Amino acid sequence: MSLSKPAVKILIIDDDEDDFFITSEYMRQIEEYNLVIEWCYRFNDAIVHLQKCSHDMYFVDYRLGAKTGLDFLKEAVQLRSEAPIVLLTGKGNKEVDIEAMQMGATDYLIKTELNADKLERCIRYALERTESLKALRANERKYRNIFELSKDSVFIADKALYFKDMNGATSDLLGYTKQELLNKSIYQLIADETSKTLLQKYLYEEGDVNDLELDLVTKAGDKRSCMFSLTSPVESTEELSYQGLIHDITNIKKAEKANLQVEKLGATGRLVRTLAHEVRNPLNNINMSVEQLSHDVVSEEAPLFLDIIQRNSKRIGDLITELLDTSRPTELVFDRCTLQEIMDESIAEALDRITLQRTNMQIRYCNEPCGIMANKEKLKIAFLNIIINAVEAMPPSNGELDVDISTNNVVHTVVIKDNGCGIPEEHISRLFEPYFTSKRNGMGLGLAATLNILQSHKAHIDVTSVVGQGTQFTISFPSA
C-alpha cells in the first residue's frame, strides 16, 4: 500500500501574474508532495497571511512595488515566523543573495533558472531544515532553566559578551577554566571575522540570536563547530545580561563527512570490481593462449612478440590489482609504533623533493612518544602522499611546510600544513574521491589510497583550506 504524499501549503507572493503561473506550473510537476499553491500579489495581504501562520512555506518575489522581498523577511523576523521563506528574483545579485541569507531566507532562486527539479530540492531542503531548527529550538526551550547539569554549554554574558557565569560543560567544550573564561569575550573565541560581524549585526538589529552556526577556537587551538543562541538582554539586579547556549555539533559534522567518504569509496569500489572481473576474464585467456603458443613457435621473431604480449598482460593485471587495492578497505598487519618514528621516515623519503623545491620545513613533536597500532609501511605511504601534495602546491623557494604531532593521551593528532595555492571549497568534498584530481597528469588515486589506509588505522582526517593561503590536514589516531 503506497503512503500518502505529505501535504504542503505554499504561498507565492508576486505582483506579476505571469511569473506566478510559470512558477506554480513548475511546482505542479513535483510528484513527491501534495502541494496546495496559493497566490498573493499585495505586500500587506502577504503580511496578514504570515501573521496567521496559514502556510507551510513562502516564495516571495524581490520586487513587490514599493516594497521588496527583504522587507518581507524583516517582517517575518519581527513576527518570529519559523516557516521557510525563499526569495525569487529576475536576475542574480550576489549582494542581495548574501543579505537575504543573513536575514534568514532559506534559499535564493533566480526565476530564469527555475525548473521542477530545482524547486523540489528547494522545498525538500527547506522543510527538512525547518524541522531541524524547530527541534533545536524546542530543545533550547526545554533546557533553558537547566544550568550545571546540562551537557550543552550554558552561560551568562554582559553586553560586550564577556562571560559572567557558565556551567561545567562550557569549560569542557572550550578547554578554559571558569576563572580564565571570566576574562574572555565570546568574540575572542570566534574563529573568523565574518562570523563576528554577523553576530554583532544580529544582536544590534534583533536583540538575540537563534541557532547561529559558529566555529569557536578552544584553548588548545582546535576549532569546534557549534550552534550558538543568545536570548534578548534581561534585567538583573546589576546590569543587562545575555543568556546563551552553545551546542557542539563537531562530531555530527565529522560523522556526516566520514559517511559520505565511505559511500563514495563503496560506489567506486563496486564499479572497479565489475570492470576488473570483465577485464581479467579475457586477460586470462590471452595469458593461457600465449603459454600454449610458446611451445609451438617456429619463427625467430615469435618469442619476441610473445614476450611483449606477456609483459603487457602482466602490466594490465598489476594495474587491475592496484585499482582494486584503492577501492576496498585495506586489511593490514599492525604492530606497535610511534607516530614520531613513522613521520620521520616519511619526511626522509620526501626530503629530496623538499630540498629541490627549497621548501622551509618546521617540525614540532610533543615530548611524549605517541604510540599507535599501525602498519608502518602503509602509513608512511599515506603521510608521504600528503607531504608530496603539499610540496607540489607551494611555490619554489617560498614554501612553508609545518608538521606537528601532539597528544592528549587518548588521541594523537598529526597536523600537516602548507602555504600553497589552497583548494577551492567545491573541491574539498571530492578530495578523497578516486580518480578526482586537479593535477594535469594526475590519476586521482594518491589521496584515495591515503584515505583507505587511514580508515584501516581507525584514524579521522579533516581538511581545511583557503585559496591562495594554504591547506591543513589534521589526522587523529586512537592511542595504543
Structural summary, described in words:
It is globular, with a radius of gyration of 29 Å. The strands form five sheets. A five-stranded parallel β-sheet has the order 2-1-3-6-7, with helices on both faces. A five-stranded antiparallel β-sheet has the order 9-8-12-11-10. It has helices at residues 17-28, 43-52, 69-78, 94-102, 116-142, 168-174, 178-181, 186-189, 193-205, 250-293, 302-327, 339-356, 376-393, 425-428, 446-456, and strands spanning 7-13, 34-40, 57-61, 63-64, 67-68, 85-89, 107-110, 153-158, 163-166, 209-217, 223-230, 241-248, 335-338, 360-365, 371-374, 400-407, 411-417, 460-466, 470-478. With 480 residues, it is α/β, with parallel strands linked by helices. Helix 10 (250-293) packs antiparallel against helix 11 and helix 12 packs parallel to helix 13. It has 15 helices and 19 strands. The protein is 45% helix and 23% strand. The mean pLDDT is 83. It has four domains: 7-142, 3-Layer(aba) Sandwich (Rossmann fold); 153-248, Beta-Lactamase (2-Layer Sandwich), CATH 3.30.450; 253-327, Helix Hairpins (Orthogonal Bundle); 335-478, Histidine kinase-like ATPase, C-terminal domain (Heat Shock Protein 90).
